[in-house]
Amino acid sequence: MKVFPSILAYLVFVLLLAVPPLILQHTGYADFLAPKFWLMFFYISGLTLLVVGAILFVQIKNADYYAQAFLAGTTVKILACMIFMIVFLMKNKVGKNVFMGDFIYVYFLNMAFEVYLLLRNLRHKNLR
Questions:
Q1: At what angle do helices 96-127 and 3-26 cross, to 10 degrees?
Q2: Burial 10-49 (b: 16+ CB within 10 A, else e)
Q3: Which residues have CB under 8 Å from 89's CB, separation 6+?
């Protein structure tokens, strides 16, 4: 799998992921978004971009370590997100339901894209 199409697919995915919060903001339903939602959105999306880039780099260098790189990247990502959550919640007063909804929306959809990328790359490898 080439790196550029995967990164481009991720950037398109992030743009599509940003559409519902933008619609909520501009239609008067900003109460459904945590304060500084975009900080959380870009932090998790940027972290996912780094993990995806690292996984693709490992796949190019040594495809045997692709699954291990995916697991290591995912572990680092979840730890970084937990630390971010703690700091974010200590610095900002937010409603717990709104924050959890926003966090789950951004984190798990980014995780779903990572899994999709893994499955697409593994399937592509098996077709050869």
A1: 160
A2: beebbeebeeebeeeeeeeeeebbbeebeebbebbbebbb
A3: 99
- CA-nearest of 33, 12, 13, 11 to 22 is 33
Give this prediction's pTM: 0.87
- For the chain, the distance separating the N- and C-terminal CA atoms, rounded to the nearest angstrom, is 11
Q: Phi/psi at 60 (nearest 5 deg)?
A: -70, -45
Contacts 24+ apart (CB under 8 A), 83-87: 84/40, 84/43, 84/44
Q: For the segment 8-31, what is each residue's pLDDT rounded down to a tens digit?
A: 999 999 999 999 999 999 998 888
Q: How large a percentage of the chain has pLDDT more than 70?
A: 95
